[in-house]
Design brief:
Layout: H1 2-14, E1 25-28, E2 33-36, E3 45-49, E4 54-61, E5 64-69, E6 74-79, E7 83-85, E8 97-103, E9 116-122, H2 125-147, E10 152-159, E11 162-167, H3 176-194, E12 200-205, E13 211-217
Parallel strand pairs: 11-12
Antiparallel strand pairs: 1-4, 1-7, 2-3, 4-5, 5-6, 8-9, 10-11, 12-13
């Protein structure tokens, strides 16, 4: 039961977390966002930044990201849910275009916490699959760090905008709300990688290949 509670809560947290890696270019997605001296709402505020402020990821601690703000020559911490990958991040060719944005609800008192993200974009299919695989690996790494379990073992293309995510047996121990949070978050990442202008489908299957949950849409 404890493991199930961990996984259910983790699904909700990861659904609103921006995905990136050390050295990646990010953009701030909220207005009047606090940049703090440490990874906590208790840390002092160094400055405040607005929408589309450029930032470079340096490291992560929990749900916080230490970023360099090149326009201000400043290093500080921002809650990860208030950051998104810059539109040209990891672009493999000049023909690619994508965008990333978040519908952010910032606490007026702290300026740190966001709500739900919405990502869209398009890129070549091979690159989209590779990028999505990296993001699934990130989700899995977070599950290992938080609950000590692997959740996903692989990603396979299905063709015609479809992709399949293979789970471990731990998936079945997760409460239905946690599974739904993961499904929504993974589908948003697949939509971001593959492009929002086409019909997409995501299946989550158990180790035997049996369908557990699925989601489809534009």
């Amino acid at each position: 039961m404890r493991l199930a509670r961990w996984l259910g809560g983790l699904g909700a947290v990861l659904a609103s977390t921006a995905l990136a890696a050390q050295g990646d270019a990010l953009l701030v997605t909220g207005s009047s966002v606090n940049v703090r001296a440490g990874p906590s709402t208790e840390a002092g505020i160094l400055t405040r930044v607005g929408v589309d402020e450029p930032a470079i990821e340096r490291r992560r601690q929990g749900e916080w990201v230490e970023v360099e703000l090149p326009d201000q020559d400043l290093l500080g911490w921002i809650h990860g849910s208030l950051l998104a990958a810059a539109p040209d991040q990891a672009a493999p060719a000049p023909t690619r275009s994508d965008s990333a944005s978040e519908a952010v609800a910032i606490d007026a008192g702290t300026g740190d916490v966001a709500a739900v993200d919405a990502l869209d974009g398009e890129e070549p299919v091979g690159t989209a699959l590779s990028r999505f695989r990296r993001e699934v690996e990130y989700f899995n790494d977070r599950a290992v760090a938080a609950a000590g379990v692997d959740l996903f073992t692989g990603v396979e293309p299905l063709g015609e905008g479809g992709v399949q995510v293979v789970t471990t047996e731990a998936w079945a121990t997760m409460p239905a709300p946690g599974q739904q949070n993961y499904l929504n978050a993974l589908f948003a990442r697949w939509r971001a990688a593959a492009g929002a202008d086409q019909a997409l489908r995501l299946e989550i299957v158990d180790p035997s290949g049996a369908l557990m949950v699925e989601k489809s849409g534009p």
